[in-house]
């Protein structure tokens, strides 16, 4: 009986470990920020954005950073996952970690702090007007600690380019918003 119980425990542990490994193999660019998101390598982002005529969502974080880990955990546990997935379809999604971070100063507009979330046009140029409106610290305008603030900025970027975005309400399914006018060129 003990052998059977031990075998069941070992099997359950192995299955849970395999599930985590499988997820990282399925989408190694997700790095815990959504395996169902179509993440793109930074090296491919501008070419992809030009081909698809989409703005770029650039997340810069480090594997050792406590604030980055907290943001990742918040995303994994939040109800915002569905909305994030839906809005991400309108962006070229880039998730850089550790040495993948772009080295150009343009991507450090107010410092090298992490995590930073930048929105870029299809040419890779920073859209400086899109910052965290609820930033806790003025010198860290591209720092986000809440999924809700990230979603709000994503919606603002899409509105700027005239993209029809889904209406997002708590507990509701995502509903397409009625078109308001012409799309701006990215």
Automatic annotation (TrEMBL):
Name the Pfam families for this protein.
Thioredoxin_7
User: What Gene Ontology cellular component terms go with this record?
Assistant: endoplasmic reticulum
**UniProt keywords, alphabetically:** Signal
Q: Does the keyword Cell membrane apply?
A: no
The protein's matches in Gene3D superfamilies, at most eight in alphabetical order, are given as: Glutaredoxin (3.40.30.10)
Keyword Calcium part of the UniProt annotation: no
Which residues are in the Thioredoxin domain?
19-159
Give the signal sequence positions. Answer: 1-16
Its domain of life reads Eukaryota
Which PANTHER family does the UniProt record give? Answer: ANTERIOR GRADIENT PROTEIN-RELATED, THIOREDOXIN DOMAIN-CONTAINING PROTEIN
Record protein name field: Thioredoxin domain-containing protein
What organism does this protein naturally occur in? Caenorhabditis latens
């Amino acid at each position: 009986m003990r052998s059977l119980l031990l075998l069941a425990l070992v099997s359950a542990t192995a299955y849970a470990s395999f599930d985590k490994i499988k997820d990282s193999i399925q989408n190694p660019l997700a790095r815990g920020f959504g395996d169902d998101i179509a993440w793109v390598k930074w090296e491919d982002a501008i070419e992809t954005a030009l081909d698809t005529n989409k703005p770029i969502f650039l997340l810069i974080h480090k594997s050792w950073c406590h604030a980055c880990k907290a943001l990742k955990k918040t995303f994994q546990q939040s109800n915002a996952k569905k909305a994030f997935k839906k809005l991400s379809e309108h962006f070229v999604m880039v998730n850089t970690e550790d040495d993948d971070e772009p080295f150009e100063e343009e991507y450090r507009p107010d410092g090298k702090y992490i995590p930073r979330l930048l929105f870029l046009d299809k040419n890779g140029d920073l859209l400086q007007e899109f910052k965290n409106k609820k930033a806790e610290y003025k010198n860290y305008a591209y720092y986000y600690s809440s999924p809700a603030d990230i979603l709000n900025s994503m919606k603002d970027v899409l509105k700027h380019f005239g993209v029809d975005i889904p209406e997002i309400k708590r507990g509701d399914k995502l509903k397409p918003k009625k078109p308001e006018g012409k799309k701006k060129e990215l």
